[in-house]
């Protein structure tokens, strides 16, 4: 805990739906080596892979090399009880919902990446880069769509 | 089920982490009225609201009116066992991971919206529009960041 950080006290255990891991993200990054954000991961020039559980390989039909996709994954080492955080890279304290920190009530990571390779039979994708640990559990792949995923005009 | 759709047979029950609902999304849309996508929701000119559980209101600190944010939410009426789907609006069948259908192994919805109002004490946000039912459970709010959330150049 750093100065200014606030923990949610007395929260009941989570009681919502149960997640299903559909595969793993294979990256070059072990503990202590992970780039701080996806931009820095891209600067390394090192790609990554998605390995689906074989049962889910048929769900890749229609994806294509070159296409951007959104990956959702579970940051299994993160805290789920922090309401306000004081990250090293900013001055002061911010609410968890104003940060991209892995520490959040539901530790779901979100990355927008480009498909660089695809093997539908094996259930694997190559992706340009990502900033998560090797072995991170995958929750979802969604096609990135400009008309849906760009913010509306101000 | 429509022609060409494939169900994952013999899946074990989900056994991953348990989600925590942190609030609800209040929208004008009941069953049978929901716009098909966020573009059509915007065309109606009708906004929506996020109501956090009071325990999570402190986590809004640092968000600002006008800022784009990503909402993650749980589509609680969706199927979780479809590998391939034949939506009415496309020809033929596609894998679930090539579609934005609510039916997916983890029924997590993703919307990029703009904050139109903010009450940090009450734990509420106004948002420009969204295409989900009134009462949809909220999982997360993340700041949308151009350097993170735009796809990389091809």
Short description:
With 154 residues, the first copy, chain A, is mainly beta. Chain A is 6% helix and 31% strand.
Word description of this protein:
Chains A, B: Belongs to the tRNA methyltransferase O family. Chains A, B: Residues 19-153 form the TsaA-like domain. The structure is a homodimer of 154-residue chains. By secondary structure, chain A is mainly β. Chain A has helices spanning 38-43, 146-149, and strands at residues 6-7, 23-26, 48-52, 68-74, 82-85, 94-95, 108-119, 124-127, 136-143. A six-stranded antiparallel barrel of chain A has the order 2-3-8-7-4-9. In chain A, strands 1-5-6 form a three-stranded antiparallel sheet, with no helix packed on it. The longest helix of chain A has 6 residues, at 38-43. Chain A starts with 5 loop residues before the first strand and ends in a 5-residue tail after the last helix. The interface between A and B is large, with 70 and 70 residues.
Low-confidence stretches of chain A: none
The interface involving the most residues is between: A-B, 70 and 70 residues
Q: Which sheet architecture does the biggest sheet of chain A show? A: 6 strands, antiparallel, barrel
Helix content of chain A: under 10%
Based on helices, strands and strand pairing, what is the structural class of chain A? mainly beta
Q: How many helices of chain A?
A: 2
Regarding quaternary structure, what we see is homodimer
C-alpha Rg of chain A (nearest Å): 17 Å
Number of domains of chain A: 1
| N/C terminus separation of chain A | 36 Å
Strand content of chain A: 25-35%
Classified in CATH, the superfamily of chain A is YaeB-like
Average pLDDT number of chain A: 96
Let me know the number of strands of chain A.
9
| Shape field of chain A | globular
CATH class of chain A: Mainly Beta
Write down the CATH topology of chain A: Elongation Factor Tu (Ef-tu), domain 3
* Strand line-up across the major sheet of chain A: 2-3-8-7-4-9
